[in-house]
Design brief:
InterPro entries: DUF5078 (IPR031702). The chain is mainly α. It has one domain. 63% of the residues lie in helices and 0% in strands. Helix 3 crosses helix 4. The chain is globular, with a radius of gyration of 22 Å.
Length: 148
């Protein structure tokens, strides 16, 4: 009797291992948007000003790329960042979850890196969120003269 039970258990184990699991996309506290960005009280402009001073090369590259896009894409980027940073943690977290499972929006199609300065680098997020509250929320930062 024990032999049959062992064979059944072995067969079930083999079946469980051989059936592929369904992968589910899920955001974590640091993916796709770093947790420090999800929790910061700072505005997009404060994050940008902090990045200008803490990660100048990264900031400069972003601004060059930003200015290489047409004014409609630039305005849409500003609007999206204002929308994102106006949300509370729960709203930002939900948006982060949606980023994992969605195929993107028209802005992502027009400029895939439009949120790179804000979302893509945990190191930059850490540096900027450490000091962003020390900066004014000045919209002129979007017109920063990148040195190309």
């Amino acid at each position: 009797m024990l032999g049959k039970a062992s064979l059944v258990a072995a067969a079930i184990s083999v079946a469980a291992v051989s059936i592929p699991a369904v992968a589910a996309a899920d955001a974590t506290d640091d993916y796709p948007i770093p947790n420090r960005i999800l929790r910061t009280p700072c505005s997009a402009e404060q994050i940008m000003a902090a990045a200008r001073d803490t990660d100048p090369v990264y900031f400069e590259r972003y601004m060059i790329d930003y200015h290489n896009h047409n004014p409609d894409v630039q305005r849409a980027t500003q609007d999206k960042m204002h929308w994102f940073f106006s949300m509370d943690y729960a709203g930002r977290r939900q948006y982060s979850e949606e980023l994992v499972t969605s195929l993107g929006d028209p802005l992502t199609g027009a400029w895939p890196n439009h949120a790179k300065l804000f979302f893509n680098n945990k190191g930059v997020a850490a540096h900027t969120t450490d000091v962003c509250a020390d900066y004014p929320s000045d919209p002129a930062i979007w017109d920063y003269p990148a040195h190309w």
